[in-house]
């Protein structure tokens, strides 16, 4: 059975975190066949650290891009990802993972993901759950079970190609999971102890601040096609997350200001109709039941 997988890691100025990620990948029970790390114009010690590891491990390959002068989230990250993707032959591998360099992974992380996908051929993409350290304790970042997390998206190569890969737009890590469901595939994540990983940099804080990150999330939801009722419900659900209340207001305001300014939305009407229908059903019967109902429909149709 082919268990080969390739990692592609876009990075920029990750010197403070990357050694922990590098070391936890090297220690995996099933190592990647290849790891392409794309240095997206780093100005710190990142290139030096990457050269050090690439010299020791011949399955680590470094791709260097010019410095754009700033950290780019969303579309910029995916541009860097594809700079790495273009260097591989996808058919050489059974699985692909877009992996950030600010994570600490458990030792059997990829082995368990592969096992889950072998047990269920309908799973297109999956991940574990992200935790952050606060006052010596691990705190769940609270991602939904119906999505694979953007910092460690593990894909069946065939499914990744079938959905057309990642869109080079904001909210790419939500759009891909909905595309999987549209095509009858499953996107998911699990909160098992052996799949919990530590996110060394809190979600949404990598560019300016957590507040601006929450506003960016609100805009991303608007771009993807999320309706007002659903984003309101989502903001209320996150009201007890740091920064308390303010973070939820920022998410909602990011959506509202985008609507007021009539910013462009994802140019795929079939996709936007699909997620609006799913979101409305989730509001009526709950997200978990809405997802289960959708998967049952897809199973009967297949």
From TrEMBL:
Residues 8-146 form the Glycosyltransferase 2-like domain. This is Poly-beta-1,6-N-acetyl-D-glucosamine synthase. The keyword Transmembrane applies. The keyword Transmembrane helix applies. The gene is icaA_4. One of its GO terms (molecular function) is hexosyltransferase activity. Keywords: Glycosyltransferase, Membrane, Transferase, Transmembrane, Transmembrane helix. Its EC number is 2.4.1.-. InterPro entries: Glyco_trans_2-like, Nucleotide-diphossugar_trans. It is an enzyme of class 2 (transferase). Pfam families: Glycos_transf_2. The chain crosses the membrane at residues 219-237, 243-260.
